[in-house]
Specification:
The strands form five sheets. A seven-stranded mixed beta sheet has the order 1-3-4-11-6-9-12, with no helix packed on it. It has one domain: Jelly Rolls. The two termini are about 35 Å apart. The protein is mainly β. The protein contains two helices and 23 strands.
C-alpha cells in the first residue's frame, strides 16, 4: 500500500508540476490480476482498484493498517467501470455490470473480486474510510436503485457544463459513517465540471476520471481559490483534493468521473462557493 502524506496550502503554492503530480495524481490504477491501494493521510481515505482477469483477487489489510482484515475498522464503496464481474463479501456473491456500485459496511472480513471474462475484465474502483459502526452492505444498480432526487441534471450546453449527477452513497440513499460516492457524466458538447467551483472545509474529495478518449486530456484545477494550479490527466486516473482546495475540470472531450468524499459531515450541500471573478 502506497502512503501519501497530508498537504499544507502554504507549501503547495511553491510546488512545480512534478511535485503536484507526485503528491496528488494517482496513475496506473488498473493492472491485470492486481489490487492497488493508495492511503492518503488527508482524512485517511484509501483509493483502490482491482482488475482481476483469470484469477480471483482477495483484498488484504496490509501492514500499514495494523488490522486483522481490511474492513476491521473501515467501510468502503465500490463502482465497476469495466466488464462484468463479481464481488463476494463473506461468501455472498454480487454480480456487477458496468457502472454498478456497492457499499460494504465495517466488519466484512473476506472480500474477493473476479471477472466474468478475462478478455473484458471488470475494473473495480473503490474508496474506503474509517468507520465507527456497521451499516448494511448494499448493492446499487444506478438505473434501478438511485432515488429520483439523487439523479440530477445540471448545467447547460451553452455554458459547456450540461451534466448528469448520480449519487450512489449518501444519507437517505445508502447509509454510511462518512463515505459518499457517485458519478457525474458530461453530456456531448460539454466539458466543464464544478464551475463555478467551491471548496468544503469539512470534507476532502477524490475524483477518478474515466470515459476519457485516448487522444483527449482532462485539465483538473486545484489549489486555493486565489492560488489555482492544474494537473493534466488522462483516462482512469485519479486525483486527491484536500478540503481547502477547489476541485474542478475542463477537458478536450466529454467525460465522466467518480467522486468520493470523506470527512467531518455528510451534508452534500455544505460547500463554500467561489465566484469566477475571484479566481486567480
Amino acid at each position: 500500500m502506497e502512503v501519501r502524506p497530508g498537504a499544507n496550502p502554504v507549501d503547495v503554492k511553491t510546488y512545480d508540476t512534478a511535485r503536484l503530480r507526485h503528491d496528488f495524481l494517482v496513475q496506473d490504477l488498473f493492472n491485470a490480476n492486481e489490487i492497488k491501494t493508495i492511503y492518503s493521510q488527508i482524512d485517511r481515505i484509501i483509493i483502490g482498484a482491482a482488475m482481476p482477469t483469470d484469477k480471483v483477487l482477495t483484498l488484504e489489510a496490509g501492514a500499514e493498517l495494523r488490522a486483522k482484515y481490511f474492513l476491521e475498522r473501515r467501510e468502503m464503496g465500490i463502482i465497476n467501470i469495466g466488464g462484468k464481474g463479481t464481488v463476494t463479501v463473506d461468501g455472498k456473491a454480487y454480480e456487477f455490470k458496468y457502472r454498478d456500485g456497492m457499499y460494504v459496511g465495517m466488519g466484512a472480513k473476506e472480500i474477493t473480486f473476479a471477472s466474468a471474462d478475462a478478455s473484458d475484465p471488470a475494473k473495480f474502483y473503490f474508496n474506503s474510510a474509517p468507520a465507527h459502526k456497521t451499516y448494511p452492505t448494499v448493492f446499487i444498480d444506478p438505473e434501478k436503485d438511485i432515488l429520483p432526487q439523487n439523479k440530477l441534471e445540471l448545467g447547460t450546453l451553452e455554458d459547456a457544463n450540461h451534466r448528469i449527477l448520480r449519487k450512489y452513497i449518501l444519507p437517505g440513499q445508502v447509509e454510511s459513517c462518512q463515505l459518499e460516492m457517485g458519478i457525474t457524466s458530461l453530456e456531448p458538447g460539454s466539458v466543464w465540471n464544478t464551475m463555478p467551483c467551491h471548496t468544503h472545509d469539512r470534507r476532502m474529495e477524490v475524483y477518478l476520471y474515466f470515459e476519457v478518449p485516448e487522444n483527449a486530456a482532462v485539465f483538473h484545477y486545484m489549489g486555493e481559490p486565489t492560488e489555482t494550479r492544474h494537473i493534466i490527466m488522462h483516462n482512469e486516473e485519479a486525483v486527491i483534493s484536500p478540503s481547502w482546495s477547489i476541485h474542478s475540470a475542463s477537458a478536450t472531450h466529454a467525460y465522466s468521473f467518480i467522486w468520493g468524499m470523506v470527512g467531518e459531515n455528510q451534508d452534500f450541500d455544505d460547500m463554500d462557493g467561489v465566484d469566477i471573478k475571484d479566481l486567480r
